[in-house]
Amino acid sequence: MIASGTDLLPRMRKRQIAPSVLLDISSFTEDLRYIRQTDGVVRLGALTTVTDLLESPVFHANLSIIREAAELFGAPQVRNVATVGGNVCSAASSEDLIPVFMALDASVKLISAKGERALPLKDFIVGKRETALGPSEILSEVSFAAPGGHSWTAYEKLGRRNMLIISIVNEALSLTLEDDLRTIGSARFALNRVSGRIPALAVRTNEFLGGRKLSEETIGQAQKVLASELSLTSDFRGSGSYRTEIAQAFLKRLLQRCSRMLGGAS
Ligand SMILES: Cc1cc2nc3c(=O)[nH]c(=O)nc-3n(C[C@H](O)[C@H](O)[C@H](O)COP(=O)(O)OP(=O)(O)OC[C@H]3O[C@@H](n4cnc5c(N)ncnc54)[C@H](O)[C@@H]3O)c2cc1C
Question: Which residue, 21, 124, 256, 262, shows the most beta carbons closer than 10 Å to its own?
Fold first, then answer.
């Protein structure tokens, strides 16, 4: 399948893959290019572009995580064509939108001539560049519940330049505070560059944070849980230990940013 080809074509040119046939889905925009918010659920058609995300009024306030990720995505030429579906289906550990959608607990809709099925995104990505997509399926939609009251989301990305940033680490957080604005109701923190080159949720860190007071002490402990839970990839862009230090620093920054926006103590 080829949507806009910004992931696929460079890989074909480098001879990493050599499909004998390409099925071009880029003209199905009437059915697959939309951003809808109804009954508290946000739905993104697979052919929605990154520029569409940037131009949408939906991604402000506690959904500004999408805008933040879109702003740091590639360059205008890439953003104008790169699609949400292509990002998710590439299942690469450098992708910006996957950790964001994981933090938002997104699901994907897969359609085929036989019908449709929905899967949580965390179960859709099964390995490095591997998804649960069946041979005759197309990903048609990514959807997630819009964060409710006392919820905020934030995104951080580290690369070596300010444009066309290939991430060394990127991280996304969706945080909900209890009514006292001091206790964490739930935290969903996701990051890329996890060993095995996959994006993933930091499950134990998220469990640790739930129900605790949002304080410097909790943040310090959560940073330790994160380091013990996940090992990050080592490659020419950064060692695993460097990435872990950045991941810990970003976790702190994200928790503090969300807390500040919610008016909580940290
Ligand atoms: C210069 C440059 C800069 C980039 N910068 C970034 C960046 O900052 N952040 C980032 O995350 N990515 C970046 N990318 C990677 C790429 O742009 C993104 O992954 C993009 O979202 C891919 O979308 P696409 O429509 O081009 O997908 P394609 O290249 O068309 O497809 C990608 C993969 O998904 C499959 N696929 C596509 N759509 C569907 C569908 N609906 N159903 C099932 N399978 C599907 C294809 O078969 C293929 O395997 C960059 C690429 C380039 C060339």
Answer: 124
Who's near 246: CB < 8 A, 6+ residues apart? 158, 168, 169, 238
Exposure string of 235-248, with b = 16+ CB inside 10 Å and e = fewer, is: eebbebeebbbbbb
Report all structural domains of the chain as residue ranges with CATH numbers, in order of start.
Answer: 8-143 (3.30.465.10), 151-265 (3.30.390.50)
pTM of the complete model:
0.95
Confidence of residue 199 (pLDDT cuts 50, 70, 90): confident
CB 65 within 8 A of CB 96: no
Residues with CB under 6 A from ligand 1: 1-8, 10, 25, 46, 73-74, 78, 82-83, 85-87, 89-90, 95-97, 133, 138-139, 164-165
